[in-house]
Design brief:
The structure is a single chain. This protein has 648 residues and is α+β, with helices and mostly antiparallel strands. The two termini are 59 Å apart. The structure holds 4'-deoxy-4'-aminopyridoxal-5'-phosphate.
């Protein structure tokens, strides 16, 4: 009910939401579940909401009953008043009563076992009328539910908890526990519904555990739908640069470039919700959202790129760009770079060496021409040599000449900074020279900006700008809708006119009013929060800190990138540059253990990719580096030579 925005859990808002819902549902009582992971507990005593390193208390050990203040509380069992207290800290119990009970003892012919019930968030008044030791009979009213200001700042409710052993903690017995201690605390505090008897159908079902979800997923989904990490994560909640698992644990997200402006950004969420509540339909009706958005996108592009096509995914956009190119050139030949990935459709698998040359791949089609990846760290020509860009471009030039001789015009497609290829930064002039060759042969150039567009690079808004080129088509996806399905091809009037060959272009969902409202909100946030500038500033500090680590740890062969698009190339040896995929995998899994989510990429799976939301802060970069350095110092992270010499 509360969404991801912590502002929704602020006392007044929370109260309005809960009691509003109860009113609309004609419910006398609102129930807050037992054994539920919650992010509500953000005061100092529970640990800050955002810090991923320390485990916070999240698991609710009682059951909450939201009712009007002053509602009388009847004892569910006979008992005696064991303890009266007032825990005044913010978000604590406020005035509370603990009653002592005993089991009947008939079974074993003994006096019965003692246990307790705890009642939190009461009125102060009621406490004054009670005395420790006083007997309370089942059904007797012994307290009342307090108002917000005297009950720890919570919406009016009773926190009811059963406690089998107080462990001498008295009023300090926790009502919320750490997830890692969940089974211990829930065994000491069983489900209070044992006393209340609320019919199970009135209490929302517990979410399945991560383990249950894995089993369920295996049954229902395809086996090659992969899951990240050796210990898979069940993520249930995202906020800014954090993802939260089903136990309420926070993870710093340093590699998902889709939530460009942060997970669950309220402006993006609101834009989608408001438009969805009004209208969502296709582009065969006139609507202004698509035009507003097309105008904004075109304004961000160089002059000749003024015509927008909207679709729903990067794959769909690349597929469409290829159709545009082939209609325009009347040739089917495509030049791609080694290790490239452009999407999951049939044709895109055919132009993605990462797939067709990989496991399960069917090899290269005759109309596909693969040029070497201009990787100046482990490619054909390396940093330090002269005219690197021209040397790499010459390979594309040769393919172009061959195609031209055969009467064919090439389509060149490349990520402007290849991400799947290993977070590669092209040498200077590479695309300038390459585009010249392609155009010289009557071809067209497609810039796949699915990963790097929208200010991520810090220095420029688009990747192609870093190479001083203007593509014939730009393909946009992933971050464009901050996670909402939206993608685009932006091209020239001339290419769009050539595509208008009598066949209608239509995508049912492409360019719908909701998607365009979301796209507009993303651009607004980027601008208003000056996120490209943040990317540049934080990226520079981060890369400098990572290069400091590179000087200390031999496994860090190369640190490269721009803004918040960085790659850490791990090697077994600095001399041979032999890739270290096991080290990369070890480090990424250890980062996950420490609450930081990173991933690997590159043809050898040895490059750690860092591509966080652009709201990533200097503090986040420092947290990453501290955790990263601690892991680099661990034995399994040592390069082979050192590990061997250590072992003697
Ligand atoms: N192009 C590139 C460079 C990509 O990385 C991807 C996805 N990883 C795509 C296209 C395909 O996008 P989607 O998964 O949205 O279809």
């Amino acid at each position: 009910m509360l969404g991801a925005d912590p502002a929704n859990s602020e006392s007044q808002t929370l109260t309005r939401t809960l009691f509003g819902k109860m009113e609309s549902e004609h419910a006398a009582v609102g129930v807050g579940r037992y054994d539920e992971a919650r992010l509500l507990y953000s005061s100092a005593m529970f640990g800050s909401r955002a810090a991923p390193s320390e485990e916070r208390r999240t698991i609710h050990l009682g059951l909450d009953l939201f009712v009007e203040p002053g509602t009388p509380i009847h004892a569910p069992l006979d008992g005696t008043v064991h303890l009266l207290a007032e825990n005044t800290a913010e978000l604590d119990y406020g005035p509370l009563v603990i009653l002592r009970h005993a089991t009947s003892g008939e079974e074993n012919n003994n006096e019965g076992e003692e246990f307790f019930t705890l009642y939190g968030h009461l009125t102060r008044e009621a406490l004054k009328e009670l005395e420790p030791g006083q007997t309370i009979s089942q059904g007797e009213v012994f307290a009342r539910v307090g108002v917000m200001h005297e009950n720890g700042g919570w919406p009016p409710h009773l926190h009811l908890q059963i406690i089998l052993d107080l462990l001498d903690r008295g009023a300090q017995f926790p009502g919320v526990a750490r997830a890692s201690e969940r089974s211990v605390w829930t065994s000491l505090s069983p489900d209070p519904n044992l006393l209340l008897g609320i019919p199970p159908e009135k209490i929302p079902e517990r979410e399945p555990s991560a383990e249950e979800t894995i089993v369920h997923r295996r049954k229902l989904l395809a086996p090659n739908l992969s899951v990240s990490y050796q210990k898979p994560l069940k993520i249930v909640h995202g906020w800014r640069q954090y993802l939260y698992d089903d136990t309420g644990r926070a993870f710093l997200d340093v590699y998902n470039n889709v939530p460009l402006v942060g997970h669950s950004h309220p402006r993006v969420v609101r834009a989608a919700q408001e438009q969805l509540a009004l209208l969502n339909t296709n582009t065969r009706y006139l609507h202004n959202n698509i035009l507003r958005y097309a105008e904004r996108l075109a304004a961000l592009m160089p002059k000749p790129l003024q015509v927008c096509f909207f679709v729903n995914s990067g794959s769909e956009a690349n597929e469409l760009a290829l159709r545009l190119a082939r209609t325009y050139t009347r040739s089917e030949d495509v030049i791609v770079l080694e290790h490239a990935y452009h999407g999951h459709t049939n044709t895109l698998i055919d132009i993605s060496p990462y797939k067709f040359d990989g496991p399960g791949g069917a090899g290269k089609k005759p109309w596909v021409h693969v040029a070497p990846l201009a990787d100046d760290y482990r490619g054909l020509y390396r940093r330090g040599e002269s005219k690197l860009g021209a040397q790499y471009a010459q390979h594309v030039g040769e393919i172009c000449k061959e195609l031209q001789t055969g009467g064919n015009r090439p389509t060149f497609i490349a990520e402007t900074l290849p991400s799947v290829g290993g977070q590669i930064v092209f040498p200077q002039d590479y695309l300038t020279e390459t585009y010249q060759c392609v155009r010289g042969a009557g071809g067209v150039c497609i810039a796949d900006e699915v990963q790097v567009g929208f200010g991520r690079l810090g220095t420029h808004f688009w990747g192609f700008e870093t190479q001083n080129v203007v593509p014939d088509m730009v393909v946009l996806g992933k971050p464009i809708g901050n996670g909402f399905p939206l993608a685009a091809v932006v091209t020239t009037r001339e290419i769009a006119e050539a595509f208008n060959n009598g066949m209608e272009f239509f995508s049912t969902f492409g360019g719908n009013p909701v998607a365009c409202a979301v796209g507009l909100a993303v651009l607004d946030v980027l601008q208003d929060e000056q996120l490209q500038g943040n990317s540049l500033r934080v990226g520079r500090l981060w890369i400098a800190a990572l290069r400091d680590l590179q000087r200390k740890y031999a496994v860090l062969g190369d640190v490269r990138g721009s803004g918040l698009f960085l790659g850490l190339d791990l090697v077994l040896s600095r001399e041979t540059r032999e890739p270290a995929p096991l080290h990369a995998s070890y480090i990424v899994n250890r980062l996950r253990d420490r609450g930081i989510l990173a991933g690997t990429d590159g043809p050898h799976h040895n490059v750690i990719k860092l591509r966080p939301p652009l709201i990533f802060s200097e503090g986040d970069a420092a947290s990453f580096c501290a955790a990263f350095e601690a892991i680099l110092a661990e034995d399994p992270a040592q390069p082979l030579s050192q590990a061997q010499s250590k072992r003697g």
